[in-house]
Design a protein that fits this description.
Structural class: alpha+beta
Strand order of the largest sheet: 3-2-1-5
Number of helices: 9
Shape: elongated
Length: about 260
């Protein structure tokens, strides 16, 4: 606790019974020799409660100098604990999932690029009209590029205030309830579902489909790819929990949250 270390450095003797919280600060714990030291993160709530206890227990004892009391109240009550070591969140991280590579960059709050890196991966063409990728290869490339950016920019992950993710549209990443990828995903240039689209556009009517969905039924779009799973890979289709896009897949791997960008799909 920065304020309490400051008190000790000023030559103030701290009573053993008021030294309640160490806040991961071993020098403070050793200096005060407290009967009880709780190792904890320096949250503002804990700091406020601790400071109040300390001030209450000082009542009836020889008064501390006013400037030290003010320092204790200001430094702890207003979240200035560990000011010398706590890292401010000054940077934004951007991730783009491209067709041939991912691109990662770290920006400061003025938009200046502090570090950037790429990570490549292949597109697979197992049959005519097929173009697919392995989402786990995206993930590995993203992880490598992020680590490279943090290292070259001399930036800690704790300094990242927010993350933005975009990527290629019209994927169909099938995951199960555990988040496992069930099969390679067809990407935007894949046309394997052309026959399904032709059949349904003829049976239902392309205009009717557009009026309901707001999009035409084309093999590059996600809906057609899901229908292709159903008709051609029932063993995969029956295990599907969610279908993700490229950016929502990376967001899921980073956070565990299932999301959908409204501009994709």
């Amino acid at each position: 606790m920065g304020a309490v270390i400051g008190l000790n450095e000023m030559g103030v003797s701290m009573p053993e019974e008021i030294s309640l919280v160490g806040f991961d600060n071993l020098p403070f714990a050793r200096a005060c020799r407290p009967a009880l030291t709780i190792v904890s993160q320096p949250t503002e709530k804990i700091a406020r409660e601790t400071a109040q206890i300390m001030l209450e227990r000082l009542e009836g004892r020889e008064a501390l100098p006013d400037h030290i009391v003010r320092k204790l109240q200001t430094d702890i009550f207003y979240g200035e604990i560990h000011k010398e070591t706590r890292m401010s969140k000054d940077y934004l991280l951007g991730i783009d999932i491209g067709t041939s590579a991912c691109k990662v960059a770290i920006f400061n709050k003025n938009g200046k690029v502090m570090a950037s890196a790429n990570g490549d991966y292949p597109v697979y063409y197992p049959h005519e009209g097929w173009a697919q990728q392995k989402p786990d290869e995206w993930w590995h490339a993203v992880c490598g590029a992020i680590c490279e950016c943090l290292e070259t920019g001399n930036i800690s992950g704790e300094q990242i205030a927010g993350v933005g993710i975009d990527g290629q549209s019209w994927s169909a990443i099938a995951i199960d309830h555990e988040g496992n990828v069930l099969t390679d995903t067809p990407i935007w240039m894949d046309t394997r579902a052309q026959e399904i689209c032709d059949r349904l556009n003829n049976e239902i009517g392309s205009e009717n489909i557009f009026n309901v969905a707001g999009n035409s039924l084309q093999p590059s779009y996600t809906t057609a790819k899901i229908l292709w799973y159903k008709e051609n890979m029932p063993e995969v289709y029956n295990k599907i929990y969610k279908i993700l896009q490229s950016n929502s897949f990376i967001a899921y791997r980073l956070t565990g949250a299932i999301t959908q960008d409204l501009s994709q799909g």
